[in-house]
Structure formats: C-alpha cells, structure tokens
Design brief:
Two copies of one chain form a homodimer. By secondary structure, chain A is of the alpha+beta class. Chain A is 22% helix and 27% strand. The longest helix of chain A has 22 residues.
C-alpha cells in the first residue's frame, strides 16, 4: 500500500531537478478538500508525534542530577536492573496523553526475565530511570540539527514532571521493591549504562 | 502544513464509526494517479523508513562481540570518545541508500568538541561503535512487540556489513587516530556505555 507525506508536497519548486517534483499549491488544496469531503482525518501536528521515547534495558544505570558546584560534589541517582526511558515532548503534547503513554511503556513486554521470557517492567519487576532527552526531537537541516517541533520549556517541564509522577505512582503500586528515578529537566544528562543488551526500542505517541 | 498517511486510506470500511472514515478505493486510485502525473514520489515501503538509527555520544563504550564459550572467554571491542550508532534495516532497504546514510551520520554535527561547539564525528575526530539493533524495528501489538517490517536475516547481514565497511572507509580516510568498531550481527549486544550526556538522536532513512 502506498503512502506519502503530504506535508512536503508544496515544498520546493516543481520541476526542481535536485528534489523530487512536488504538486502545485492549487492541486494540493484541491487534494485536501477532496479528502475532507470523504471524511479523512487530517493531522494538524505537522505530521509528527506528540511524544517520542527510546527505551533501553539495563543491569545498572547512573545519572547525574546535579553537576558539581564550587563547594559541592555532583549528585547522582542510580537504578539496578530495569529500564531507561529517554523522553521528549513535542508541541501539541498535553497531559491528556500521559496516562496511556505511561500505561503502554510500563506494560510493554520489553524486559528479559531470568527465565528468558519477555515481560513488562511492572512484571519483572524492574526499576525505571527517566532521562529527559530533548535531542530526540531533532530533525536535520543540512549538517545541523533543529529542534523546532519540541515543546516549549515551561510546558515541557510541566509535562515531564507529570510523566515522572505517573510512572512513580504506577510502578510503585505494582511493587515495593522497585523505584523510579529521574533526571533534572534542562540539565546535561551525564549517564553511565551497564547492560546485558540494551534491546533499544522506539515508541512514539 | 497538513499531512496524512495514505497507506491507511483504504483500510476498514467507510462509515465505520469506530474508525475515521476512509476514501473509496476508486478515489484512492485516482488520487495516486493524479499525484504521479505531478511527479510526486510514492513510497512503496508501507509508509515506514528503510533504515532507522539511534545515535548516542560516548566517552567510552565497550561491546561484547563473542560470548564466553566452554573453553574461551568473552571477546569485546571498545572505543573511547565518539559516537554509538544503533542500526536497524527494514524490508525494502538496499545498498543504494548506504552512501548517503553513512555520509549523513558521519557529517551531522552531533558531537561536542572540547570548546563546546557541535561538530561531526569526522571533525571531532571521534570513534564510532556500530551496534546492530533489530529491536529498533519493533511495533507494538497489544503488549508484545512485533518486528514484521524488519529486513530478512541474510539481506540484513549483507547490508549491515556493507554499512560497517563504508563507515570504516569514510572515517579512517578522515583521520588515522580514530577507529570504527562494530557488533556481531545476530548476537546479544552486551554494551557498557560511559557518557558526558548521550545526546540521543533518532535518524531515519
């Protein structure tokens, strides 16, 4: 089945030989109207997700939450066996999406149990380390990366904090043995990771 | 700018209230023809990328390339400062795409130089560790992950090897001080990672 990203249809100049030709703006508008007549839902988020997460399994992970100061040592959080969730929110993300997002991530069978079976981090039960990772929102422009679709700083902090709280609530309800740790939003995420295979997955919402 | 995934346009039944209504197959075919007349490129990969990579910056990374055997110890490769490339190929990926893929990854300004400026791994110059990571192709179905869009084993090995060779060629041409190491395709990728912030990025091709 064919697919195409209509958001790129009017970029560039038709006939530009250095890029695939695109349809004219007139035809594009006719296309959208035609589809809307048929009741096709049009995404208004620029075609991208509201949140992007990368998941890695770990034996141990240590994350700096406060850099060393003039009179203080650096501070760290640490988890033993479990899952690292790198998270990035985009413009258009809202608190409404968080319960489903948390439920999905904590219930996906991504963790290897001692018997070799794949189980969720709730079932393992495993610890969770949440790493704010705005860089996941990057899109290349030439040789540089741009982060134009990323959520703004204040909204991002609010959503991130709510995401962390929800994870804590759900994980710690499942087991008293495990914990959720998280990075400081906006800081450099100095991370050390020890794995028996990260089994890196991408999940978008 | 609006966008939509046309590959879903003829799924389901028009008027099905549990899903967004879709356009009729007749109108879909007219749509595709119309766009092709305009020269719009149609992706035949089921709407997904041909390759997916996740990039992380590291101070040091160690990867097991051979597990311990009955009479042998485990073998590892290791890099110092540089970039880890986790790579997954999908059905429809071919060798044609590799030169541009390698060039993009090695020239994107993702690495932090000692002055704090963002430079490419070629400019740093940094080492590269390539980790085959088929799990990146996962899509959730209920609580399980499915990997149906992943490239087959033989083609995957062939492409992965070619990708590694191209990276070696391009990186080592840029500097004699740096190296490319890579994981063993199909093995468990036992990885230990030390970072000053992984600056995790997603790049799809």
């Amino acid at each position: 089945m064919r697919s195409f990203d209509a958001s790129r249809l009017t970029s560039g100049q038709p006939g530009n030989s250095s890029q695939a030709p695109f349809i004219s703006p007139v035809r594009y508008r006719l296309l959208c109207s035609s589809l809307e007549e048929d009741g096709v839902r049009m995404a208004d988020s620029g075609g991208g997700p509201a949140a992007r997460t990368v998941l890695q399994q770990c034996l141990q992970a240590r994350l700096q939450v406060q850099p060393a100061g003039e009179q203080s040592e650096a501070e760290y959080v640490q988890i033993s066996r479990g899952m690292v969730i790198y998270v990035c929110f985009f413009k258009g993300a809202s608190e409404d999406m968080l319960p489903r997002m948390v439920s999905t991530l904590l219930n996906l069978r991504l963790c290897e149990s001692s018997s070799g079976k794949m189980v969720s981090v709730l079932e393992l039960p495993g610890n969770v380390l949440i790493v704010p990772q705005a860089t996941l929102g990057g899109r290349p422009k030439g040789r540089a990366m741009q982060y134009h679709q990323n959520i703004g700083k204040e909204d991002g902090l609010r959503l991130y904090s709510a995401f962390v709280s929800l994870c804590e609530k759900e994980l710690m309800a499942a087991s008293a043995e495990v914990t959720v740790k998280h990075g400081t939003y906006g800081n450099r995420q100095v991370l050390v990771l020890d794995t028996n295979g990260p089994y890196t997955h991408l999940m978008e919402f």
